Amino acid sequence: MKKIKKIAVMTSGGDAPGMNAAIRSVVRACAYYSVSCVGIYRGYEGLIDGDFVELTARSVNNIINKGGTILKSARSKEFRTKEGRAKAYEHLQENDIEAMVVIGGDGSFTGAVVFNEEYNFPVIGIPGTIDNDIFGTSHTIGYDTALNTAVEAIDKIRDTASSHNRLFFVEVMGRDAGFIALNAGVGAGAEEILIPEEDLGLDRMLESLKKSRRTGKSSSIVVVAEGDKSGRNVYQLAEYVEQNLPEYDVRVSVLGHMQRGGSPSCFDRVLASRLGVKSVELLLDGKTNLMVGLKDNEVISSSIAEAIKGGHSINQELLRVSDIMTT
């Protein structure tokens, strides 16, 4: 088997805290195994444009603690076309790049799978998304940091809610997954948590808030996942409660993209470091079309195709705990 001499690394899709730590790990692992490493700027868009930079162990100094991604990220419509992928492959060939590590979410992995099928080009995926919605890993890079950011913000909002006897609806990110909302809601002591996986209905929410009022709670926090299936956005939910429970002074806070920024947590830095090393080692062992992930605190690999198709189910035990905690 021919030894791989040059590996490229890219970040694609939405940024996530810990992506820089993953880039650093891939680059340092390449240096350890005497393999050249190339960074691809702007994800698949940069791959099509041939926007590459040589990376060495020293060029990734002091980035493990930085949020965002030094390689930038972008969506690429052109990569979805055969012509776009042909350009990308041409640039890889011109630069003697023999394998690629893609750090991103399911959209990024879908592109990697298609590219591998068309050109038999070795690819390994590292799950980097705050949504934690990738099958085949208990944690994605960035999720832990985003979760802690959300809890910290909700704690501060509760101070204001308590001071003014208000009900706050706090919307957190997570796309169509409720992992951030459920865990942040439990961790911050929310009175109600609305997530896409469990459509509990608006009547239950009203009843829960009425009960809170009866038992002496003068302020409340409702955490809402951005993909909640209630049929209303967070502002409409707030308006609905105001109409049905006029005794509540209702406010809305949308945390938004602050959850994607900031210095990564220690957990995300360590996870990114472990997954980066494993991705390089898999490529050097001749493996391809795999995603590295975490299961029972062990680094594992699984099919990228399965990661895209599989559903990462919500923790039912935590749902049960949240029901008890909102009593």
Measured distance between first and last alpha carbons: 61 Å
Query: Which structural class fits the helix and strand makeup?
Result: alpha/beta
Main sheet makeup: 7 strands, mixed
Which spans have pLDDT < 50 for at least 5 consecutive residues?
none
H/E topology pattern: EHEHEHEHEHEHEHEHEHEEHH
Strand order of the largest sheet: 3-2-1-4-5-10-11
Mean pLDDT equals 93
Cα shape:
elongated
As a percent range, the share of helical residues equals 40-55%
**Strands, total number:** 11
- Strand fraction equals 15-25%
What integer value in Å does the Rg equal?
A: 22 Å
Number of helices: 11
Task: Characterise this structure.
The structure is a single chain. With 327 residues, this protein is of the alpha/beta class. 42% of the residues lie in helices and 18% in strands. The protein contains eleven helices and eleven strands. It has a seven-stranded mixed beta sheet, sandwiched between helices. Helix 4 links the parallel strand 4 and strand 5. The mean pLDDT is 93.
